[in-house]
Every structure is written in structure tokens, then in C-alpha cells.
Amino acid sequence: MARRLPTGGSRIDRSRPVTITVDGETVEAYAGDTLASALLAADRLLVSRGIYSGRPRGVIGVGVEESNAYVQVLDDGHVDRGGDQGGGGGEPMVAATTLEVADGLAVERIAGRGWLSTDVDHRRYDTLTTHCEVAVVGGGLAGLRAAVAAQAPGVRVLLLDDGPVLGGAAADLPAGSPAGLELEALLGELTCEVLVRTTVTGSHGHGRLVAVERGRRLHHVQAARIVLATGAQERPMVFEDDDRPGIMLACAAADYVSRYGVLPGERAVVWTAHDAGIHAALELAAAGTELAAVLDVRGSMAPELAGALDALGVPVHLGAEVTGTDGSDDETGRLVRVHTSAGSWDADLLAVSGGSNPAVQLFSHPGGRTRWSDEVAGFVPDTPAPGQAGRESVVGAAAGETATIPGWREQLTPPAAWFRSSVGDPERVFVDPHRDATLHDLRRAHAAGLSSVEHVKRFTTVGTGADQGRGFGVLTVGILAQELGRPVGEVGTTTYRPPYLPLSFGLLAGRNRGVLSDPVRVSQVHDRVAHAPMENVGQWKRPWFFPTADETGPGAMDAAVAREVAAVRTGVGMMDASTLGKILLQGADVGVLLDRVYTNLFSTLKVGKVRYGVMCGPDGMVIDDGTTARLSETAWLMSTTTGNAASVYDALEEWHQTEWPELDVTITSVTDQWSVVAVAGPSSRFVISALAPDLDVSAEAFAFMEWREAVVAGIPARVMRVSFSGELAFEVNVPSWWGAALWDAVAEAGEPWGITPYGTETMHVLRAEKGFPIVGQDTDGTVTPHDLGMSWAVSRKKPDFIGKRSLARDDAQRPDRRHLVGLVPVDGRTRIVEGAQLVAHGADLTAFPVAMAGHVTSAYPVGHDGQPFALALLDGGRDRLGEVLDAVDDLVPLAVRVTGPVSYDPEGARRDG
Amino acid sequence: MLRIPCPHCGERDETEFHYGGEAGVDYPADPSALADDAWAAYLFLRANPRGWFRERWFHGSGCRLWFALERHTVTDEIRSA
Amino acid sequence: MRISDRLPDHPDFLWADAEPRKSYDVVVIGGGGHGLATAYYLAAHHGITNVAVLEKGWLAGGNMARNTTIIRSNYLWDESAGIYEHSLKLWETLEDELDTQVLFSQRGVLNLAHNLADVREGKRRVNANQLNGLDAQWLSPEEIGKLVPILDVSDRPRHPVVGGTFQPRAGIAKHDYVAWGFARAAHALGVDIVQNCEVTGFQTSGDTVMAVETSRGTIGCGKVALAAAGHTAVLAGHLGVRLPLQSHPLQALVSELLEQVLDTVVMSNAVHVYVSQAHKGELVMGAGVDAHVGYGQRGSFHVIEEQMAAAVELFPIFGRAHVLRTWAGIVDVTPDASPIVGTLPFDNAFVNCGWGTGGFKATPGVGSVYADTVAHGRPHELAAPFALDRFTTGRLIDEHGAAAVAH
After folding, report:
1. Domain, as residue range, for A700
2. What per-residue confidence (pLDDT) applies to C407?
3. Is the ipTM of this complex over 0.95?
4. B&C contacts, CB < 8 Å
């Protein structure tokens, strides 16, 4: 620990040594060190290299303003802490100045570009939401004062600070100093909630702040009032060879002494544009650094400071500037000599301080405007974002106040707005070392005709590095102003965008990973069917097919589906239909509402009956379909497709509330309140009869499209005679918690008839043979009910329904619109592919473009006749039955014959069993 | 993050709401009486101002009621309508 | 420590700002990619060089500077494939055309399918693309796994990858190089580029637009061509024309520079991810479009959070990458997710807008088509289907499936 001072270091615990690894070499440190302080203490100055130039680079700053020292973390050492699973390795581009050391921390030095580790990140990230009356960002004196002033009974105040301890700059001052005493008093009074090591990374408007705690917890803070006490960041200066290890920000260099007990240099030249740099020089000198010279760009110096330097015998050069540096010949390239307009000195530290930048990023995020202040020599908050006015205030150094901290590097004479040296090779004057961008690059941009800061930023890439301009950003604006010969305020700052500090993808993902990344919905029957392969339908998991032990391998689905289809066509099958949307409509005017939202007439439906309906958008295109049962004079139960349940429910609510509030209707989603088992097939009557002995299931007593209340397997139920297969079928609706019991009872009662569970694929085959379209599969938002051949379901009598006017437009009346048709392969055996495009038979598939007449929407390998079949949308299709076309998939044609969409039982003879 | 003042539930995160676009676009009293261009205007033309905009929101994850408010489309300031 | 290669230098000279003159043969409103490309093609291909491009802010500072630079042409409908493929072909020769580098990288674009509905839609689109002469392929999860090894194609993700469409000729370019390339070439041909010049109104006489009123004075125009993306609705409003446009924030973000792990553009509509790794090594990702109308160039943070969850789900390796910067553009979206290109109800006014999330990839294509439309005073054949009157007739070009959130 070559540069560790024997005493001092407010943040380190010398009783807790820590061992870390840098490029495989062991480095000793103390708890409380950052990687940067540990490396400085170990006299390891080469921390990175220029991304393109390869030039050696060291640590410049002490915090988030760091522009150079970004490393690749191999292992963060935080194994098994805080419930983590460990494996916190492989994080790219972490600032050495904010990375706290821990035993086991291993890093690799990199040149401006990190890499992604392939080990799985097992770290746990949490997202927390906090509401408060006042959020104070920054726990320095200004922030503490604001927090203490805001504290009151019943007032939730949250104080957030990015450092490990509160106090900001005051924490680095002696306990007995005025600032130290005030800090002690404020901390004594502080009672509010405090989050340390928590950086507010974004101010997102409407009082929302986003903060990250130790890289692991993401806080959403909703605050009625926001106090920004974010302080200021020290600004560098640029000159030839300004990027060598050993060249640091002056106050940062002094902070390494006070916080970490590390002396950043044995012999230093200090160059400053404001008084803080001189204070820092005095602090370095007090710690043992020999000051070779102090240079101030200004023409005068406050007598107190001049006197203090004189007492130390330090030569002072006013109006002087650094003109270049020399580096060592070894690989570290560390600073060995400083050239200035006042002479040259050997030195291992060049401490520069070009002024301070109020940290206005959070003020800027929601749209706050800054202005250049000559008094501060920096951009200060001007007009808050309109949405923040009255909600947000900025205090302390962030507001450009210079006397926030009594006794701390305080302002005695105005700072100078100093940006660049006028001499030197512009290709070696680095204005953004992290992007290896130079003064030469800025000049090239200007010469190319660019004058906007945004253009120059893009031309040169300055400000786009890991520090996002926190270090050199304002400096670039100043240099550009000098190059353009315009005032800084006129050239303007760039707009700051969130996040203030980088946020890891994993942190933002939080717990929303794996099964939690999107809710999984399953029916109450799921346990009974969970062994089946599942199809994802929106958020639902639905059984796809039910393979037997013999049905394995690539042909498993085809075999299972053929068996399930046969069971329904010849015996009986059962399926969990619980996922279909169910909406209860109650009130005297439900019929009126349904007449408006469905294309066909509903108000005439009698209690005990069920009717199928098609729903269009105002544009006349089909958006959903389903059956609706009239439960009583004033209660109706609508079913929707599984995927559209929420959107139909919302649409009904919207029409009712916003257009027809006078209608007496109450709309309730009851999808999750009912479990539904469909029992389908010619033998289904026997199964239902066995389950519900009191229910007369004869075709005469219980007709198609009727519903009955019944006790089924001892469960109170509604039984509906609806069919999506063309076969005799019953849908048994029971309160949802009876779902599994019902399933078991149906399976048991059906056993004598060989009842067969079936999944969505079989359901699709069964309905496709009947030409029943599936909205969203056989439609795509461009299909009208007429296109589907459902003109029978479109009322001509009703004065209006949603979509009616659109169906009267010319384009909706074209005879060559795409119609739903059926297809069969001409060879009777080759499977048609869903998504195949339809072209003229024999069309030349090498002469592009090949005219397309439609596409295959649904296709199945086997129908009831053992042959493949499909549904398709085809231009003018209804007039083309019998025509032969080619269905082209991957440029391979298959001859298909156009048929009607109904390929099975077109007379509907089977629905009564 | 927009904070939407639901008149019934109070201010909530925008994630609880669905957006409904321009407010005050009434369904025509007699669509069949409209010419194609007037019907197209109802279907597709909505104000899209830079500035104050009266718009509809639906508190889908709360009271499930529709309401209108005025929001400034540049600054996101909200004032109730 | 591995040292990286620099990107190619920008040209030594790009363009010089012009003071607006009293009048121009054509005034193009909007100094984004489309406006600049239009001006360039007017000058280079139609001999119309007395042209001004008026930009209210800094050149190409709108969506051109804010998009994720994905270029592809694999749209579903013939009309869309027509104009986007025309554009893709122009991208393939653009460096020669402009005599500058635009870093067009044909690394292929992969659109993932996560369920059976995606598979149907994807195959339908691939087949339509192939029959339109486009290079489209359907890939199995295994093929996708080989193409993009860091993508989790196992059945672990909540919405597993079950296939995907791939267009090998698709890719990315570097937006500043493109915009500045057009600006440089247009300027060299005599086009005036006027920045910080906001259009505040128009002077009309009957069915003719006589002049454009701007923050820098009134500028006479022989013809006026709107090309202002999300701001076009406001401009058209000054002409008394209502356009079926809604302007929404669309967010994007970028990571730190990372060693190359992804050399294909990957998009997933279902889980709202599209990502590429740009030339310098940063991951560039787009999020979903915010639902509300907005011109603030700020989106909502929850959209980013949702997008990151989806990204990490598909690419577990991304978990430790960092979001370095986020931003938002303003996309102008039409009811059918297809653009509006053609004439306005004036003798000499033209409109090009409504590109939604598709604007960047269309830049050279629409520039050439729109310039032809303006030069000849009638829609170019590739533009004709995108006329404004389709919203009245109902003959829409519904690209919601292909456009969705996707770029």
C-alpha cells in the first residue's frame, strides 16, 4: 500500500483488510475503499487504455464524474449476501470510483469496451415503490437542511444519497469545523427515512423518481414535492497530453486523502480556474504532497489563499496555463513532468480544477431548462419543466449556490470560465478521453460546417461514453463556444436524458423473469389436464392434444388428433372450455346494447335460448364472435374468444359509458367465475343424462341453442346446447371451484362410452370442417362478416349496428374481396401449409412478382374423409369453387381445389345427435 | 411516468389506465345518413395537437370508468377537464 | 486490453447553412432523412436544384437521430413490399450514389415467432415476400439458435421461440452518416439547407400555396413538400387539411460499448423487443410505442422496464449490460400503420407522413418516390396506393401485423 497514509480516511476501516484481484494480481485494500482508491493506494495508476488510441489512462475523479476508469468486474465478491444466489460476475463497464471493494472482488482492466459474460446471472433484483410527500435527492448539507425542515408528523420525507454516508462534502471536513458541527446537528435532528448508496437516476415527470440502491434494488419514488440537492461536479481542463495517469481533478485528489487516506501524488502541480482548486492544493500539501507550483488562470488570487500558499513556500503563477505533459517510458505512461506557460516541473500529480458543474441532470430530465451563469461559470437551473413547477426545487450547489458549506473550499473570487489551452497539438488534446475524442475532432466538425452542439457531439462522439458527459460534457460546450467565437450560453448545453447512471438490464427486468415475466393463466381444471402438451393462447395455457403412451415422436400430435377427432365424430369427447371469455350483462336494456354491438338481432332472443353473434369494429371488420345466452328478462351471458375476452369487455364498457350511458346495463367479467367442460359427440347425450338424471336431454325437450339449469354430478350447473364441432354437444358451466370435480365426474360418467379428452388442435379440426372461422386466425382485421360468408348473421333490418356504415362503403362491396373458402389438395394426400399463398395454377414461380390471390389461414392433415383440408381467404373466392390453384409454401407449389368452407355435414344433420 | 388523476379513485400510475384518444368524438346519430368522407372523418380523423388536448382515459385496473382530462402533449401537464 | 478500430471518418465537409432566399421552386419542410433525401433526388434525378430544406431545429435531429436504424423490406402486402424493397435496393447502392459511407451492414433481420399465431403470420409473410421476389426465409428454432447463439431457443422462456422469419439482405446503417450524406450531396447540387427555421403558416391563393411563413420570414414556393414526420399534422392543419395521424412517443435506448455478441438484428413483436449491436459495439434497442399522444420526446419509464424484462428473457446474457441512455422520438401513426404519400388538395402541395416506425428504412426509397411525385405533380406508381383517399374508400393497407411495434 505504497501511497496509503498512516492515518486518516473517513470512509475506510483499517481493521478490516480486504483482498481483491486486478487482472489476476492481488491488491490489498480496506473495507470502505473504492476500487479506485485501492488502486491509487497500491500505486497502480494504469487503469484503462484509450478505446482507439490505446493510450494509458488512470483515475481522474472520485465519483460519478469519472471519465476513464471503467473496468470489467469478473466477480463482485458479494456471494451469498442479501439472499442472493451468488455468481455476481461479469459486469461490464463499472466505474472504479464508485465500485466498493469486497473480499473476492475480481476485475479486469479494459479499453473503453466491456464484454458480456455467459454465466447466468443469479442475482436477485427487486423493484420497490415508495410514496412520499417530499423526496430530497442528495444528503449533503443542503439536502439535510431541506429534509430536516420538511420533517413533520404525518409528512413522509425520503432522503436519498448516492454515497455510503450522509454529509456530502461536509463529511470530509473536520468534526470541529463549522460545517462539521452543522452536520452533526442536522444528523441529530434527522428522523426521516434515509436511503444511502442510492442514486436517483431519473426524474420522469409527475413527481416520479427512479433510483437504484447498490445496483440491486430499483426504487420508484412518487413524491408530491422534490428537492434536488444533487451538488456539483468538478470540471476538468484540457491541454496537450491531458490524459496521462497522474492527471486528476484537484478536489478529487484531495478527497482521496480525506476519505481514503491515500496520497495521490508525492509532488504535484496544481492548475485551477477557481478557488476550490487552491483549497484542494492546500489540503494535499497538508497531507504531505510537495507542491511544485500552483497555477491559476485568473489574474488575481484571494489574499487568504495567496498567503496560505506563500506560507508553504509554494510558487504561485497567476494567468498561467498548462501547455503539455511528459509521461514515463514504461507501460504505465504515468505523468513525470508538467510544462506550463510559467515553466516546467517534474511531478507525479497534476491536479486540475476547471470549475464546477452544478448537477442539473435530474432538473433537465423532465424538461427543465438551464442557463449559463458567469457567476458560477457553469450551467445552472433556469426554468423548471412546466409539469414540475411548484413541485420541484433545487437547492445548494446544484442551484449554483456557492456558500452552501461553511468553510469548504468556499468562493472568495469569481471562478473563471476556462475551457481550453490555446497551444499544443490538437490531436493530443483529449476533450473526451473515454471516447478518445480530441480538440482536432471538434475542429474538424466545425470545419465540416457543423455548429449545433448536437451535431458536433454526433460527429465527434464526445459525451456518449460511459460517463455520458458528466465529466467533460460542459467543457465540450465551452470549447465549442470558443471555437465558434460565440458566448457559451448561446451555444447551449445538450439535453440530459435518463438514466443519470447506467442501469443494468437485469435490474430493470427485476423479478419479471421466467414464469413471472408474463402472468400464466390456467383454468380450475388445469391440474387434471396439465400432463398434456400446452398451447400458449395469450396468457392462458390450454391443452393442445392428449397423446397416449403410444403416441410419441414427431407424429404424436397427428396421431392423437386423429384419434380425438374420431372420438368426437363417432363417440364422445370432452374438453376444458373454461378459458373462453364470459361476460355477464344485466339490466333492462341489454338487448338494445347487443343489437348495437352485434351485427345480428339479439333483443328478440327468448329466455332460455342462446344465439351466435358476430361483432365488428366501427370499420366493419370482424373483431370477435361467440354465443350469448339469455338467462332472464334482464340477464345475459356473453361468451367471447379466449384471446379477446378483455378487449371485448373493455369495448362493451366503452360503448355503454361513453356513447349510450342512458342504457340500463351493468357489465361484469365472469370468465374466472365459471368452469366449463364441453362434452361433444353423438354419445354426449348419454353422458349428460347419466350426470344429470333430472335433466331431460332429448332433442325435443332441450333443443339446439338452448340452455337449462340443472344439477350435474351434484353440482349446480348451467348446461348449454351449443356446438363448435357440428356434433351433438353440451357445455356444462359450473362455479369455477367445481371445475376439477366436474372434469372428474364427466370422465367417470363417460367411461362406458370411451369418452376422450381433446385439446385445442382437435377443436380446431372439428370446427374447420364445419367452416367455423376463428377470429384472429381466419381473420386478420381486414375481413368483414360477408367475407366470411356470414351475411346471414348481418341484419338488414336493424337501422344501425357498429360497423354497418363501413360495410356500405365501396371497398366493402367489391365482389373480388377475399372470401373464406375451403381447399383440398388435388392429389388428395399432400398436406397444405398454413400461411401458404395462393397463386394461379402453374404460375411461373421464378418470374417475380407472382400475383397472389389469397392465403391459407387454417390447415389440417386429416379430415373426416382421411384427406388433408384447409381454410383460406381467396379473392372473389365464393365465385371460384372448383377452381384449381397453387398453394405456395417456400416457393413450392401444391395444386389445391377450391371448395366451400363447410366440408362436413353441410346439412347440419348431426347437431341433434 | 404519467400520473393520471382518476376523478373517482384519485391519482394513479398510467399503467392502470387505457388510453382512449381524443375526447368528444361522438358516434354519429345516423351513420347511414353520412357521406363516405364524413363517415371516414368519424372513423379516422382525430385531433393531434401540439399543446393542450382533451383526451379520454379508462381506469381499467381500478374503477373501470371512462373520463376525460386535458393534458399538454408537449409538457405532459394535466388539468382536469 | 483490447484496442478497438475507429469507425470511418466523416467527410471533411458536409454542408454550409444557408440564409433563406425570397423564394424557391420547391420548399421541402422538414430537414430529416426524408426531407433531405427528397431534396437530393429532386436535384440529382430531376434537375430541380432551386430547392430549400427548412428545418425547425438542427438537421436530422428528429426521428432520424432517434431511431434504431433497422432496414428491411419484408412487409406483408404487395404495396408495402413494393416501396420498402425499392428502398432496400437503393440502400444497396447508396454509398456509390452519395459518394460517402453510410455503414450499411446487411447482417440480416430475424423476426421471432412465439406462438402458433405468430407462426401462421410469419409463414404467410415469408411466402408473400418470396413471391414478391424478396429474400425471405422461415427458420426453425434450431436454425435460429445457430444464427444467434446467445438467443435462448429452449423451452425455458415464458414465451419460447418457436420459429422466425429471416431476411438476409436486411440490416442496419449509421443514421448520422446517412442524413449527412444526403445533406452533403444535396448541398453540393445547390440545395439550400436552412436550420432553425420553423414553419408557422402558409399563404394560399385559391388552390395554390404561394408562400411558406417561417420564423425567418416568408418564403415563396413553386411547390411545397411536407416531410415533417410527427409534426406533419400540425403543418397540414395550417393548410386546413386534417390528416388521420396520431403522434406518439417511441422510446429507444443504448447500452455501453460491448465486445461483439450479436451480428443479426433480432425483433420480436410479441414481447416487444428489437435489438441490434451497432458498429461500435453498443446494443441498440427499441421499445413499444407509448399509447398516448405526445410530442415531448419523453416516454414512460415502465415501457423501458417491460422491454428489458423481455430482452433478458430472450437473451439471458444481456442481464448485466447497462442502459446508458434512453430517448424518445415522435412517430406519426396512421389507422392502418401504412404511410401517406401523395398530393394534398392543392395544385402544388404534397404530403409524406405517417411512416410510424418504418421511416428510417424507407429513407432513400421514399426520397426518390416523393421527389418524383413532387417533380411531376402526380403520385409515383409506388406511392399511388398510399394516397390519402384510401381512408374514405376503405381500401386500407393494413400493416399492423408487420409494423406492430416493430421497426
Report:
1. 672-750
2. 35
3. yes
4. 59
